Request: fold
Amino acid sequence: MPLVVFAVLLLQSFQVPSTGSAELTGAWRFRAGDSVAFARPGYADHDWPLVNVPGRWPAGTDGFGWYRTRFVFDAIPYAPVAIRFQSVAVAFEVFVDGERLGALGGFPPRYRARSGIPYTVVLPPSYLTPGEHVLALRVYSAERYGGITGPVAVGPVDDVAREARIRDWLLLGTALLLLGVGVGQFAFWLRRSDARLHLVLALFCLALAGFFIVWMPSVRLALAPWVYWFRFYVAFAAASGAAACFVYRRLFEMDDDRLVLSLGLAFVVLIPLALFLPTWDQLRAAQIYLLNPAALVLVAAGMGLALRMRRRGAEYTGPVLWGALILAVGVFHDVFASWGLITATTTYPWFLLAGCIAYVLGLVFAAGHKVADAETAALYDRLTGLYRREIVMDALQREIRRAARTKTSIAVIMMDVDRFKQINDTLGHQVGDRVLAEVGRRLGEAGRAVDWLGRYGGDEFIGVLADTPTAGAVQAAERLRLAVSALPIATGRTARTVTLSAGVAAFDGGGEWPTTEQLVGAADAALYRAKDLGRNTVST
Reply:
């Protein structure tokens, strides 16, 4: 395996601020190779070439290498001073004025690649004297590239550490939010085992939470002695992608979509690859050439599916579409920056954080809306908006039992649209459906909130009135009849007056309590008497 070596020293000295932090960016001195003399403050490095920091080492560099620069204190700092390295590839040691202050990763023969881990060294008081000080980095990489790939900052400890704390808290807050949403979705699935959409949505939230937790600077540093954090980063990202694919299949009802299924399986395969690929280069390649393209396809598919469902009238996909658009900005920015196609606008994943939160909340809203739609469809007739027959009959059984216990009355009204077959035969079934929908709307508005009004079948309607004697049931039936015939109903080019016949059956107590079949049968017989009396009337 090729070895990579280099070293660097700066042309100018950096002034350390008394408050805040300063970035040590720009030209540093560099030299490939390895020697303990390179750490000494008096070493002559004026003939070393200059390289830009942050950035990768010069092409063709192998093995070890050194970076050198200088910083200046005008006076003794009032507070402890720290130097923070955002990312160094892939193992390094830090020297100030020739003394080793810290290291991250492992050097041969115990080589451990550790990159993308923010690392802070605190300068001992003896190094805070006024004047110029030399900062040197011994860097090693056995991979395709190495170097100081992230910004370097120096300043008071609190100021230097503040940025890392802010990142930690924001990433932790995002993770906790996602964990809370995921636990809520999982609890909903436990109560309703048929709600598998909420189970996969919970897995999606939990995988994303793990992704953001591993991204925390403090977690990356804590994992460094034992395992490379980037393995978990890629694994959680792949798990999130796989879960998102299965969310798509459930949410958008596309169980036969081979593209989404194949994409989900590709993400699943990436999980063990991330955990067990032997080298740092292979892991980075898996991210750049497998995970990143799959993430782009996933986000584009999410936007396309949400837009397609939106055009089909699924209004609940609106938040999903907006969340996908925000997420797309973050994903495309980060992926294109990793490919070198654009320059990263920030070292912090603001777009990705906001996009993930917006997208998850959009999916949760859509999932909840879909459950509500399913429950509504189970309760209500789609055409008329009234209760379905099964719901009204169940309510009738309960009301009969309650009336028997409390010795109160109960009534049933059977209603039928007069000459509805003629409307269908002359104007068509579509007009007939519009008539039924309008009749249902008028019945719903005229009925009481405590009444159970439903579509019995075809052009027949049923009403269950609890605690209502015969006289009250007749008055209610008259109110419903008049509500339907009060205004003509549009049937295309013309409007048509539609009338209703109703039959009432009531039980006021005394004797044996009737069954549902007896009450409905009696109301149905009364309805036929109303038809025989000339329609548009109420009979008991």
In short: Residues 1-11 have pLDDT under 50 and may be disordered. DSSP finds 13 helices and 21 strands in the chain.
